[in-house]
């Protein structure tokens, strides 16, 4: 199969005064797959720039063998692999150690997204990402980079009262963990559909003394009905109204949603405020990996080649 060369065509390249900011903002973007969606892709090298960080979502019930096989395949194809480690589906410390060893031995994995996971009842003793971090297993195994989850519009599972008290307390703990362990950490967020709540939330992190860089989650191009379904299931907050308003316009209802407007607004804010805490863009390919990869290429071009963080 001929591989894409990842060069901007003139009719695809971003234009206008915000083009450079948008390209810079998209540099080093990451994307997420699951084993079952990855199996449908013949060759990721035909879709993504070399070295792109690819998260592998671990959904409850997915065998670890499938997760590791997907990681090994992505590693062979030249990508940086970051599997999920959801605390609530890991029964014990021995299982965690086994998963880490498998990922390292078969796929040379050195990065992880450590999160609580969306299941209501833990299968074992772990119920939070902090417990996984406290085992010290990632550090002893030589993992270079550990990411944790963030929720710009809150998380009712963590803060049922609608506040963000528990979420912020957990993020402060994780920031302190990064400082005392020298772990390279970042917050990767739930996807959102509006720039302002993101800007307010990132500024709030800074005000709270939480210095972890943010990798902002966005939903890739998809049918509007698909996005609304996922947004409701994942607990997306007030920015859901952006989709609901769009759905009221029949002319837009049949057109795929693209996140370009929101990302461009965040990019412009970053250009005006270089110390703004967003470091990378993370794409949830809810409308398919191919559609998201093509969109990322269109708005980022060669700038979308990831500048991998140093070890």
UniProtKB/TrEMBL annotation:
Gene3D superfamilies from the UniProt entry: 3.20.20.220
Keywords from the named record: Oxidoreductase
InterPro entries cross-referenced by the UniProt entry: FAD-linked_oxidoreductase-like
SUPFAM superfamilies per record: FAD-linked oxidoreductase
GO molecular function: oxidoreductase activity
Protein name: Methylenetetrahydrofolate reductase (NADPH)
Phylogenetic classification of the source organism: Bacteria, Pseudomonadati, Pseudomonadota, Alphaproteobacteria, Rhodobacterales
